[in-house]
C-alpha cells in the first residue's frame, strides 16, 4: 500500500511516501526549485518520491494533505471579525489569495495531481485531509523508537492550535489538550525575530544563535507585559503588543515603547540591545518548554517525550529539557516544521485509517533522515562534465583517505554523498566540512564560504561512540537537535580581561580546544554519526580521528546564504565555484578548486549572495 503525504501553500512545501508503513522517500520542494522555503505545489518533490519507489500516481492508494484549509479559513475570518475594524489592510491583502486559491484547495490539489500524473481527476486516488497538529504529532511519535510516549507539538499556528499534547501508544495517538491562536510560543519567538531584524519563518535560528552573546535583562519585562506564564506552562499573550492578528507586521508601537525603540532594520549592525533581547526571549522559551514538560510528565506519568512543530527546532530548549531529567528520553522529528507535516499526514492514514500494527526497531524509523535523492556515478560524471568541471575519480577507500588528509590540513571540503537529508539540517550528505581545531575556521567559513553573519555558530559532527569524550551528552543526537556543553577538560578558561568582554567581542575568544564548534557559552549543537545510517561519513570521521586524534568535524549545510541546501551534483559544483571552498567530493569524484577552469578570485558574483 502506497500513501503520499503533502504539505504546501504556506511555507516549506514537501512530499513524503510511505509504503506499507515504511518511509521510502521524503523531500522539500525548495531543494529542486532552488527557491528557499518554496511554498508552491511540490511537483518536483512529488515526482522524486514516485521515481524513488518506481511508482506512478496510479499506484498510490491515498494522498493526504497535512492540514484542513477550511478550518484555517474559519480561524482567519473569526480573527478579523474579533478585531474589526482594525486589520482592514491585512484582510484585504489576505482575501484575494484565499478566495482565488486556498479556499478551493481540494480542487487545486486535484488539478495539480491530475496534470502531474497525466490522468483525469476522476481517476485520482482518494484525497484526504489531516489536522495540522495531528500531522505534527504523527511525524513525531510514529517514527520514534518508543512504544509509548507523550507528544508535545509547538509551532506558530495550525488551523487553531498552537500547542498540543498527545498520548501515543502502539499505533494510536490520543489528543489530550491544546492552546489555541492567538496565544502561541512560536509566534512570540517570531515576533522577537522580526523585532531584532531577522526574517520571520527563517531567521528564528539566527535569534537562537545570537542569544549567548547577550544577557537576559528583559526576562522580567517579557513575563510581566507580554506573556502570562502559569506554573503549569500554559500561557496567554497580551495582544496589545502584537500586530500579527490584523496587521502586516509582527509587533506594534506599544511593543516598540516597551523595548525602547523601533525594530532593528535588517542588515544594520547588531547592538548589545539585540543580543540581550535575544538572550531574554530564548530564556523565556526554555522556561515555557520546561514547565510544559513537567506538567505533561505529571499528568500522563509517561517517561518518554516526542517533539515536533517549528519550536522543536530550538535545540537549546531541547537540550535544557533533556538535562532537566523530567523525561527519561526524548525524540525529536528531524523535519519538525511544516515539511515534516507531509510525513505525518501519510502516517496518519496508515495508522489511523487502516489501523495497521506499528513495528518497533532498536533505533527510530527515519533511516537517519537520509530520504532524498542520490545520484549514481554515471549521472554525477555527466553533470560535472556538462559544467566543464575537472575531477579525479577514485574508489571509496582512497576518496575517504584523501579527504581526511585535506581536512587535517585545514582545507574546507564540500561533501555531497548518498541520499539527501530530509529536514533543515545537513547531516553529512549535503555538508561543508572543516577542522574544528582551527581557531579561524568559524570566521573563514562564515565570511568566505557561507557569506553570513560572523556570530553564527557551526555544529560538530562526532563519532557516536566517542560523543562522551567531547560533550556532556550521554545519548545519540543523530539529527543535530540537541545542544550540550563541551566537556570540562576541553574548555579554555577565560582571563579576567576576557571575562569583561561583551557581545560580539566575545567571538574571537577561543572557548575550547575545538574553537570552531564551541559557542561563547561553551555549548555545541551536536550531531552523532552512526555507521548504520551513514557508513561513508562515519568512515571519514574515523580516518580523520586516526590522523589527528580528533573524532569531530565542523559540519555546516552545503549552501550559501539565501539559497537552499544543494540537491544535485550540478548544484554542488555551482556552490563550490561561488565560494572559498578548497575541494569538493561528490560521490567518488574529487575536485580541487585550483584545477577548475573558471577563474579563481573573481569576486563579482558575491553580490548575488549578499542579502537574504
UniProtKB/TrEMBL annotation:
<dbReference type="InterPro" id="IPR031730">
    <property type="entry name" value="Carbam_trans_C"/>
</dbReference>
<comment type="similarity">
    <text>Belongs to the NodU/CmcH family.</text>
</comment>
<dbReference type="Pfam" id="PF16861">
    <property type="entry name" value="Carbam_trans_C"/>
</dbReference>
<dbReference type="InterPro" id="IPR003696">
    <property type="entry name" value="Carbtransf_dom"/>
</dbReference>
<feature type="domain" description="Carbamoyltransferase">
    <location>
        <begin position="3"/>
        <end position="347"/>
    </location>
</feature>
<dbReference type="InterPro" id="IPR051338">
    <property type="entry name" value="NodU/CmcH_Carbamoyltrnsfr"/>
</dbReference>
<dbReference type="InterPro" id="IPR038152">
    <property type="entry name" value="Carbam_trans_C_sf"/>
</dbReference>
<dbReference type="Pfam" id="PF02543">
    <property type="entry name" value="Carbam_trans_N"/>
</dbReference>
<dbReference type="InterPro" id="IPR043129">
    <property type="entry name" value="ATPase_NBD"/>
</dbReference>
<dbReference type="GO" id="GO:0003824">
    <property type="term" value="F:catalytic activity"/>
</dbReference>
<feature type="domain" description="Carbamoyltransferase C-terminal">
    <location>
        <begin position="404"/>
        <end position="593"/>
    </location>
</feature>
<protein>
    <recommendedName>
        <fullName>Carbamoyltransferase</fullName>
    </recommendedName>
</protein>
Amino acid at each position: 500500500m502506497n500513501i503520499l503525504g503533502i504539505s504546501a501553500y504556506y511555507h516549506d512545501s514537501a512530499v513524503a511516501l510511505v509504503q506499507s508503513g515504511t518511509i521510502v522517500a521524503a523531500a522539500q520542494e525548495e531543494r529542486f526549485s532552488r527557491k528557499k522555503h518554496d511554498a508552491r505545489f511540490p511537483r518536483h518533490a512529488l515526482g522524486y518520491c514516485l521515481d524513488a519507489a518506481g511508482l506512478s500516481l496510479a499506484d498510490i492508494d491515498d494522498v493526504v494533505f497535512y492540514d484542513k484549509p477550511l478550518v484555517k479559513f474559519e480561524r482567519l475570518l473569526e480573527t478579523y471579525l474579533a478585531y474589526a475594524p482594525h486589520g482592514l489592510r491585512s484582510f484585504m491583502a489576505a482575501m484575494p489569495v484565499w478566495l482565488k486559491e486556498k479556499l478551493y484547495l481540494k480542487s487545486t490539489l486535484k488539478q495539480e495531481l491530475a496534470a502531474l500524473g497525466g490522468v483525469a481527476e476522476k481517476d485520482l486516488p482518494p484525497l484526504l485531509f489531516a489536522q495540522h497538529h495531528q500531522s505534527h504529532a504523527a511525524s513525531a511519535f510514529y517514527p520514534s523508537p518508543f512504544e509509548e510516549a507523550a507528544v508535545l507539538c509547538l509551532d506558530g499556528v495550525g488551523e487553531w492550535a498552537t500547542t498540543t499534547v498527545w498520548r501515543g501508544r502502539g499505533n494510536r495517538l490520543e489528543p489530550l489538550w491544546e492552546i489555541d491562536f492567538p496565544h502561541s510560543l512560536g509566534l512570540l519567538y517570531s515576533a522577537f525575530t522580526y523585532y531584532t531584524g531577522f526574517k520571520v519563518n527563517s531567521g528564528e535560528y539566527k535569534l537562537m544563535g545570537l542569544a549567548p552573546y547577550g544577557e537576559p535583562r528583559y526576562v522580567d519585562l517579557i513575563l510581566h507585559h507580554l506573556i502570562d506564564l502559569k506554573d503549569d506552562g500554559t500561557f496567554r499573550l497580551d495582544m496589545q503588543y502584537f500586530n500579527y492578528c490584523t496587521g502586516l507586521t509582527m509587533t506594534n508601537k506599544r511593543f516598540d515603547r516597551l523595548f525602547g525603540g523601533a525594530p532593528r532594520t535588517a542588515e544594520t549592525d547588531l547592538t548589545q540591545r539585540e543580543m540581550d533581547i535575544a538572550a531574554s526571549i530564548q530564556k523565556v522559551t526554555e522556561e515555557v518548554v520546561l514547565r510544559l514538560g513537567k506538567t505533561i510528565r505529571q499528568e500522563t506519568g509517561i517517561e518518554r517525550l516526542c517533539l515536533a512543530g517549528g519550536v522543536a527546532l530550538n535545540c537549546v530548549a531541547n537540550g535544557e529539557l533533556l538535562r532537566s531529567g523530567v523525561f527519561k528520553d526524548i525524540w525529536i522529528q528531524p523535519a519538525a516544521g511544516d515539511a515534516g507535516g507531509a510525513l505525518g499526514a501519510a502516517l496518519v492514514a496508515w495508522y489511523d485509517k487502516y489501523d495497521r500494527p506499528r513495528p518497533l526497531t532498536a533505533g527510530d524509523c527515519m533511516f537517519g533522515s537520509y530520504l532524498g535523492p542520490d545520484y549514481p556515478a554515471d549521472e554525477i560524471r555527466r553533470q560535472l562534465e556538462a559544467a566543464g568541471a575537472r575531477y579525479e575519480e577514485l574508489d571509496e577507500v582512497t576518496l575517504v583517505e584523501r579527504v581526511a588528509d585535506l581536512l587535517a590540513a585545514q582545507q574546507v571540503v564540500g561533501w555531497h554523498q548518498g541520499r539527501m537529508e530530509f529536514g533543515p539540517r545537513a547531516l553529512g550528505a549535503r555538508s561543508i566540512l572543516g577542522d574544528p581545531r582551527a581557531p579561524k575556521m568559524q570566521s573563514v567559513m562564515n565570511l568566505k564560504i557561507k557569506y553570513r553573519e560572523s556570530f553564527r555558530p557551526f555544529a560538530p559532527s562526532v563519532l557516536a561512540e566517542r560523543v562522551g569524550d567531547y560533550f556532556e551528552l550521554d545519548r545519540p543526537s543523530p539529527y543535530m537537535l540537541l545542544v550540550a556543553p563541551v566537556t570540562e577538560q576541553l574548555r579554555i578558561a577565560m582571563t579576567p580581561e576576557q571575562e569583561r568582554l561583551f557581545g560580539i567581542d566575545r567571538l574571537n575568544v577561543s572557548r575550547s580546544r575545538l574553537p570552531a564548534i564551541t559557542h561563547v557559552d561553551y555549548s555545541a549543537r551536536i550531531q552523532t554519526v552512526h555507521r548504520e545510517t551513514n557508513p561513508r561519513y562515519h568512515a571519514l570521521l574515523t580516518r580523520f580521528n586516526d590522523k589527528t586524534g580528533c573524532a569531530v568535524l565542523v559540519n555546516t549545510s552545503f549552501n550559501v546564504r539565501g539559497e537552499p541546501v544543494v540537491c544535485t551534483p550540478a548544484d554542488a559544483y555551482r556552490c563550490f565555484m561561488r565560494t572559498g571552498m578548497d575541494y569538493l567530493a561528490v560521490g567518488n569524484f574529487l575536485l580541487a578548486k585550483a584545477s577548475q577552469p573558471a577563474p579563481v578570485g573573481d569576486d563579482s558574483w558575491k553580490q548575488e549572495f549578499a542579502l537574504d
